[in-house]
Amino acid sequence: MADSWGGGRALDLDAPAVGDRFRLFKFTHRDDFVVYLWVLRAMDRLRAVHRVQVDGDDVAAALAELALHHDGVPAADASLRARLDALAEDGIIHRLEDASRAGSLARYRNRQSVYQFSELGYRAFTAVEDVLAARVRDANLSRLVFSDILDDLKSLALANRGGDGEQVYRRLSRLDQVMEDMVRRSARFHVTLGEIVGSTDASPDLFLRHKNALLAHMTEFMAELDRYLPRLHRAVLEVEDSGAGAMLARAAGVDDRPFLGPAERTEDWRRRWEALRAWFTAEPGASSGAAGLRRATRTAVSGVIALLRQVTEAQRGGVNRASELRHLAEWICDAPDEDAAYALASAAFNVGSARHLGGAHDDVEQISPRSTWWDAPGIEIGLTPFRTGRPSGPGLPQPVRADARARADLRGRQLAARAAERRAAASLAGAGAHDRVLDEVETRVLLALLTRALEARTVVSGRLRSASGSDDTVVLRLVPHAAGSGVRTAHGLLHLPGFALEISTRPGRADG
Fold it and tell me: Highest taxon of the source (predicted)?
């Protein structure tokens, strides 16, 4: 499916072609890569005003204009021409000789060079700019795009039945662009969300500030996808019933790409239509692309809820990485002298003197005796000599020590915590979760039940009817509610768009 959307066309390139295109990014590895980047930005500024071919003076003037609005723009110097020539050698720009620009015989003899972007070079430059301009806050799921796709599919079927080739081409082109944008947005959103959930350095304050909007965004996207997926499936089948072969022939006939023949254009549109069809219809025994996106979003919701519970518990305990580092910084600042501060920091960050270890390779004949330790391959070293400097060995077996008092104390705390959770569950079953503020224990029990209900929910006929989660005392049910509901806790308001909560005592546990 990725091949049909253009991403797989790079797989057809051989190694020399790949090497030539990677050479376009060579300027990013130079020591003064920022200067080269601003030179290309100056050329792009001139390109935007339809000045395709420029010389060194034009680029210097564009750099001066950029310096008026941006900090860090390098000043044009005598090395500007050398940098333009280096970019021309990399293939990003073309270097041409324009004798008409020579104002004197000397300049004519020296050949007045002009420069312009190459097609692939401009793509490489824009790819670098896209990476530099990427922001986490821009990631989102395109929820409103499904209605546009449905309208385009219906219009495509009507145009195909009426034999309107231009309208067929317009609708297919629009569908191709919309699908490509949706796939790119979805992939970027889930990659960004995976980094947020999997990162241990994420700011808890930032996450807690945006958690409600994030959960609402994903929930609304899944609801919209569930609502439109059956309609999109029927619309795709209607388009095929109107004549898929004739539709592709009409689109290829109107397509005016001069470098492709009629057969190549027809094959290209066939691949694009098959990719779109695979998104909303599934073959027997397989799943569609939209179904896979829905599963990924549901998994992401569970991950966000788990991270929310983890962050909430960490803040309730008051001990996390930030608080530990602040306390350590205070201890180091309050140290009586530098030696004590250095010893404390070394102990905290496990900074010690270097311990050099060595050993023989399994096959010493493979290693040249003239190889330095830097170039020679590494060998495996046991953990014991690495940590202590002593040779590793099985050692003496350690006796098993049973601390009955500690185990009894731990068991007592576990029973007390379980009793508190049972009382909180009984309170939830009796007074409900709405129209009051839940305490810490009730909030923890509610989140556990809500997580189980969300993980166990099922979709019937494209809609989420209800879901339930239970423990050994109570049962929580998600009931569809048009206006949605909210649960007030000691830490804020938990929004439940489209649902309300019903909590009851589990049958047979009324005495709980």
Answer: Bacteria
Q: How confident is the model at residue 4 (pLDDT cuts 50, 70, 90)?
A: very low
d(CA 241, CA 247): 11
pLDDT of res. 3: 46
What would the pLDDT profile of 187-236 be if each residue is shown by its tens digit?
A: 777 777 766 666 544 555 656 666 677 777 778 888 888 888 888 889 99
Distance CA 437, CA 451 (A): 20
| Residue 153 · residue 236 · CB < 8 Å | yes
Sheet holding 485-489, edge to edge: 437-438, 485-489, 492-496
pLDDT of res. 356: 64
Beta strands in 358-438 (DSSP E): 437-438
- Taking the C-alpha atoms of residue 453 and residue 469, their distance in angstroms, rounded to an integer, is 4
Which tokens belong to 259? 């470098």
| Ranges of H-type helices in 103-164 | 105-110, 119-133, 145-162
Question: pTM for the complete prediction?
Answer: 0.46
Distance between CA atoms of 501 and 50, rounded to whole angstroms? 61
DSSP 295-357: HHHHHHHHHHHHHHHHHHHHHHHT-SHHHHHHHHHHHHHT-SSHHHHHHHHHHHTT-------
Report the pLDDT value the prediction gives residue 136, as an integer from 0 to 100. 58
The 3-state DSSP class for residue 147 equals helix
Instruction: Give dist(CA 390, CA 356) in Å, integer.
Output: 12
| Distance from C-alpha of 377 to C-alpha of 374, rounded to nearest angstrom | 8
Domain 7-133 class, CATH top level: mainly alpha
Report the pLDDT value the prediction gives residue 77, as an integer from 0 to 100: 79
Task: Report the distance separating Cα 126 and Cα 65, nearest Å.
Answer: 20
Local structure of residue 247 (DSSP, 8 states): H
Read off the tokens for 265.
Answer: 């254009």
HSE of 160 in the Cβ direction (CA atoms, 13 Å)?
Answer: 23
Among 455, 476, 478, residue whose Cα is nearest residue 466: 478
Q: Minimal CA–CA distance to 279: which of 145, 168, 189, 159?
A: 145
User: Per mean pLDDT, which range of 135-139, 157-161, 485-489 is the poorest?
Assistant: 135-139
Phi, psi of 95 (to 5 degrees): -110, 120
- For residues 63 and 437, give the distance between their C-alpha atoms in angstroms, rounded to a whole number: 60
- Average confidence (pLDDT) over 87-113: 68
Which band of pLDDT confidence, cut at 50, 70 and 90, is reported for residue 1?
A: very low
